[in-house]
Amino acid sequence: MTSLVQSVDWLAIAPPTLTAAAALVVLVTDLFLPAARKPLLGWIATGGLALAALSLLPLLGGHRATFCLAQPSPATAPAGGHSALAADVCSYVADPFALVIQFLVLAGALLTALLSVDTVKEHRLPAGEYWFLLLSSAAGAALLPASRDLATLVIALEVASLPAFALVGLRRGDRLSSEAALKFFLSSVVATAVTLLGVSFLYAATGSLHLSRVAHTLTALPDPRLATLAAAGVALTLVGFAFKTAAVPFHFWVPDTYVGAPLPIAAYLSVVGKAVGFSGLILVTVRGFPSYAHVWGPAMAVLAALTMTAGNVAALRQDPDRRHGAVRLLAWSSVGQAGYLLVPIAAAGYTGDPAHAIGATVAYALMYAAVNLGAFAVAALVARTRPANRIADYRGLYARHPLAALALGFFLLCLAGLPPGVIGLFAKVTVFSAAVDAGLGWLAVVMAVNVAIALYYYLQWTAVLFRGAGEGAERPTGEPVGEPAEAAAAAPLRAAVPATLTTAIALAAVLGIALSGAPQLVLRFASGALL
């Protein structure tokens, strides 16, 4: 008889718990702080995220599980311990995969917090709401990779997503912000509804929500009608997570959402939001539906090809003089990068060693997180005096702010996979190798073509940084005149750059340079993230 008493390992659940506790501290502290001291909330949030990240250290090298259903068996259960089955039937598992993704999430949220400290003050965003929502979303994102049942997965997904809707639309009175929040909300609600429908079908077919039991039951369903129901549940669950990863054709919300959101939140969605979607997709495919690899493997391969192609072609067509063109290019670039991240997941459906393929996705995600956050940080610096944030506004950035230009150039070369961005090259080779090893030669060819397409727009933007600044202040034809934001467009960048923004750019650059000097570190780190 299954016991309903569940053990709780507080050390294992420390990362999401500490993040959630910091959110509550911010919420309560906001009630008592006068307006002049609201910036203190940002430092409380940053400290909470740093503490949550440090709580990962005692968990390294271990495998801890909690919220388990104890089902002792006299033949298999050791004296004083759980049975082998009980170890698999757990709702929360702090294994190497979960720890690596939690590190990515918390480090990304920490860099987002550094970017946000001055943004909240300068844009007069409600500080209490902003920091509470950011921490709440980060708590859900940290919970998801450790989730091992479908109910906890969906709850973690929604805890990560719901605060993000409000963060995108937090610039009250801004039409772009409201429109972006509405599009993001509607697309995510549809994704959640589809996911819940798929989960309900799977529960009806298997009688369980735990991924290990679902995987075991799907291998031998006694009734053909249940097999049909389970196949529908698998397909709907995959479609729901495809929305979250911004895979084509579920990507339409990305460009407008990134443009309408505050820049730190756009950076957060591009990294942490993707980590949430991809970790959930990995768990349901590799852990929950291994017997349906013949279904989701080809589906992921097609999605990968469509996503990388649509993202790169759209980025290639961006007008340098279009308002918010730089953010739109980064948004479409993130869609293309999502296609690369899908390749190893597709490969996992074709190979007998899916863990190796998943390690390639994790390695690529770690590289992408560091350099993409760095690119958004430089975009935030430029936006301080050029709110239109056109690609043309970056002309001559090296003359005005050489270190920022060199940093952005390095980040773009990493995303392109060119030296000196060696870590980007190694990450792409790792993903390419995963496709070839799985026998997906056609997908490897599609990826190679897309990497060549991406080279053009990444190098084009990099070249703009070092050109003369004479044309950088010119207003494109038809640009509205007299807007306060545009009045500052011709002004040089401020000499005083916020220390938090400088720190965020420096951290991303140092991490990228260190990994480019020793790319084997991230590959070895990711190789431990095996399910």
UniProtKB/TrEMBL annotation:
Residue ranges crossing the lipid bilayer per the database entry: 12-33, 40-60, 97-115, 127-144, 150-170, 182-206, 226-253, 265-289, 295-317, 329-350, 362-383, 403-427, 439-459
Enzyme class name: translocase
GO cellular component, one term: endomembrane system
EC number: 7.1.1.-
GO MF, any single term: quinone binding
Record's keyword annotation contains Nucleus: no
Localization annotation: Cell membrane; Endomembrane system; Membrane
InterPro entries noted in UniProt: NADH-Q_OxRdtase_suN/2, ND/Mrp_TM
Membrane topology value: Multi-pass membrane protein
Reactions it catalyzes: a quinone + NADH + 5 H(+)(in) = a quinol + NAD(+) + 4 H(+)(out)
Gene Ontology process terms (BP): ATP synthesis coupled electron transport
Keywords: Cell membrane, Membrane, NAD, Quinone, Translocase, Transmembrane, Transmembrane helix, Transport
Domain NADH:quinone oxidoreductase/Mrp antiporter transmembrane, residue spans: 147-452
Function: NDH-1 shuttles electrons from NADH, via FMN and iron-sulfur (Fe-S) centers, to quinones in the respiratory chain. The immediate electron acceptor for the enzyme in this species is believed to be a menaquinone. Couples the redox reaction to proton translocation (for every two electrons transferred, four hydrogen ions are translocated across the cytoplasmic membrane), and thus conserves the redox energy in a proton gradient.
Self-association and partners: NDH-1 is composed of 14 different subunits. Subunits NuoA, H, J, K, L, M, N constitute the membrane sector of the complex.
Family: Belongs to the complex I subunit 2 family.
Database matches in HAMAP family: NDH1_NuoN_1 (MF_00445)
Protein's name according to its UniProt entry: NADH-quinone oxidoreductase subunit N
Gene this chain is encoded by: nuoN
